[in-house]
Amino acid sequence: MKRLSLTASILTLFTLPSLAQISVSGTVATPRTAVTVTYSDYYKVEPKVVEGLVAQKVSDDDISVALFLSNHAKVTPEILIGYRTKGLSWADITIKIGVKPDVFFVVLPANPGPPYGKAWGHWKKRKAHPGLVFDLGDDDLRNLVQLRLVSEHYKVKPAEVIKWRGSGKAFDMIISDEHGKKHGHGKPADEDKVSPGKERIRRAPTKPRTNPAKGMAKAKGISRER
């Protein structure tokens, strides 16, 4: 019996789907799955490309920047991550591969505040002085790229995304939440809500009522006309 159980466990392990293969139509996706599927859809890459970068311990935000620049420069994201491991900033890499810094910027509300205040100020100066040195930091570019992804892919107003980020909400959770809403895994229905500390009580299905006298008469073959 132990051998059979071990064999069944091994077979189950090798037949489990990868994150990219999980259907999100009938299951609640984890943040990891939601990010992988979203990047695959938005950047038009195979899920295995995203999973390969995750396996290299690259952060989700850096994966997004790498895929974003890869689409603009026709350079593989693996090469771009290679530049990162050599110590280059995302601004340095952008100039190195010949991408114009303007691709990062989206229309922002006037003085959006952190974490977009510096990017907004730089963009404002850049419009007046196109030759301004591109010196935005890595976090600034990560935030701009992810803002564009969420607002375009999930049709969310940039101001709303900025508000979420200003409250400290990470992009993996923002993506997971919006992914859930898009695929019908948002807030639970009212009937499924349970108060904290209480278990959900399910009522047993009620059976249709029967007339005991009628049942006894039928069983004995007695006619009601007699």
Question: Assembly state here?
Answer: single chain
Order of helices and strands: HHHHHHHHHHH
Major sheet size, sense and barrel closure: none
Which spans have pLDDT < 50 for at least 5 consecutive residues? Answer: 4-27, 187-206, 212-226
Q: Give the distance, in angstroms, between the N- and C-terminal Cα atoms.
A: 64 Å
What is the approximate shape? globular
Q: What is the CA-based Rg, rounded? A: 28 Å
The residue-averaged pLDDT reads 78
**Structural class given helices, strands, pairing?**
mainly alpha
Kindly state the number of beta strands: 0
- Helix percentage: 40-55%
Contiguous helical run count: 11
Approximate strand percentage: under 5%
Short account of what is shown:
The protein has helices at residues 2-15, 31-43, 47-55, 60-73, 77-85, 90-96, 117-128, 138-153, 158-166, 171-182, 212-219. It is mostly helical and 226 residues long. Helix 4 packs across helix 5.
